[in-house]
From TrEMBL:
It comes from Frateuria terrea. SUPFAM superfamilies: Formate/glycerate dehydrogenase catalytic domain-like, NAD(P)-binding Rossmann-fold domains. This is proton-translocating NAD(P)(+) transhydrogenase. GO terms for cellular component: plasma membrane. The keyword Transferase does not apply.
Length: 366
């Protein structure tokens, strides 16, 4: 029997991405897989139905009734799972932490589900790593938002009215989002610094033409992870950061841990010590924010400083974000296909560690 892979229009407010692009539909078709999409599934991302030469279109109920595997960007409402074929498979960002009701809904239809956020950060998993691909989009867009909201020019300008000095930009966190934000700030001509508690990120930050901010406290640990700072070390770090923030025009914070509240890095007192007109863009807003004053999805003014807490930034660049995300989904789906059937190999670490439920039985302990 031919495997059917389906996707719906994403239902979350403001979500414009799609889990299957025309490119990925073509690749699936080449493997003998039938692609079944809801009418208009890719339209908001810039992919009208006619751009999917190798896909079939139907209404949502038909897609759910026929799909052997449903690909999604964000978890659908639980009612969607109730309409799926019993024993079918779901692949996407399923927000597994604190998802007891979602796992129960999967169980009622004996569904197998893979949450791509749970992929281990290994070399082999990079081609499927949705967190990294979407973080790159978020870091890029965060710096564009900062450039738009900043009351200053980013680059140095020499004009008939005099020379305009470049903005001083600090990016906190040198993960994928942070490095992309640093690269974007540099492209925009800002005087750019990057900071991370892991001193080994210095080389990455400097390779982008930015300066590494050294606060005199090292949190170097084992396996590439930061160790926990002592009370004295943390106090010294916080004081050094607070002193430095007084000369910064723009801060973009990117420190986030999936499934856990974002670490608080910027206190209200630090913000109060910044210069009037300064700007903070908090990429960790969805997890509560790296700044104590951040309100998710809102703009806050405090002592002349503006704090922005944007949400779901990848949805704001839906075409390229969808292309990257769909390739991730395709590369993971390849692991599940064997001999013309969906047959997960749970001896494969990538399959085992992303499994949220198998045949309706919970597999995730979190």
């Amino acid at each position: 029997m031919t495997i059917t892979v389906g996707a719906l229009r994403e239902a979350a407010a403001g979500e414009r991405r799609v889990a299957i692009t025309p490119e990925v539909a073509r690749k699936l078709h080449g493997k003998g897989v039938r692609v079944l999409l809801e009418h208009g599934a890719g339209e908001a991302a810039g992919f009208p139905d006619q751009s999917y030469a190798e896909a079939t279109f139907a209404d949502a109920q038909q897609v759910l009734a026929q799909a052997d595997l449903l690909a999604c960007v964000l978890p659908p409402v639980d009612a969607v799972f109730e309409q799926m074929r019993e024993g079918a498979t779901v692949v996407g960002q399923l927000r597994p932490h604190g998802a007891a009701t979602r796992i129960a809904a999967l169980g009622r239809r004996k569904l197998t589900a893979f949450a791509l956020e749970l992929l281990p950060r290994t070399t082999r998993a990079q081609a499927m790593d949705v967190l990294s691909s979407q973080a790159a989009v978020a870091g890029y867009r965060a710096m564009l938002i900062a450039a738009e909201a900043c009351p200053k020019f980013f680059p140095m300008l020499t004009t008939a009215a005099g020379t305009i000095r470049p903005s001083r930009v600090l990016v906190i966190g040198a993960g994928v989002a942070g490095l992309q934000a640093i690269a974007t700030a540099r492209r925009l001509g800002a005087q750019t610094e990057g900071y991370d508690v892991r001193p080994e990120t210095r080389e990455q930050i400097e390779s982008l033409g930015a300066k590494f901010l050294d606060l005199g406290v090292s949190a170097a640990g084992t396996g590439g992870y930061a160790r926990e700072l002592s009370v004295e070390e943390r106090a010294a770090q916080q004081q050094a950061l607070a002193d430095h923030l007084k000369v910064v025009d723009v801060i973009v914070t990117t420190a986030a841990v999936p499934g856990r509240p974002a670490p608080k890095i910027l206190t209200a007192a630090m913000v109060g010590g910044m210069k009037p007109g300064a700007l903070i863009v908090d990429l960790a807003a969805e997890g509560g924010g790296n700044c104590e004053l951040t309100r998710p999805g809102e703009r806050v003014e405090h002592a002349g400083v503006t704090i922005l807490g944007p949400l779901n930034l990848p949805a704001g660049a839906p075409l390229h974000a969808s292309e990257m995300y769909a390739r991730n989904v395709y590369n993971f789906t390849e692991l599940l296909l064997r001999d013309g059937a969906i047959a997960p190999d749970f001896s494969d670490e990538l399959v085992a560690r992303t499994c949220l439920s198998h045949g309706g039985e919970p597999r995730f302990q979190g």
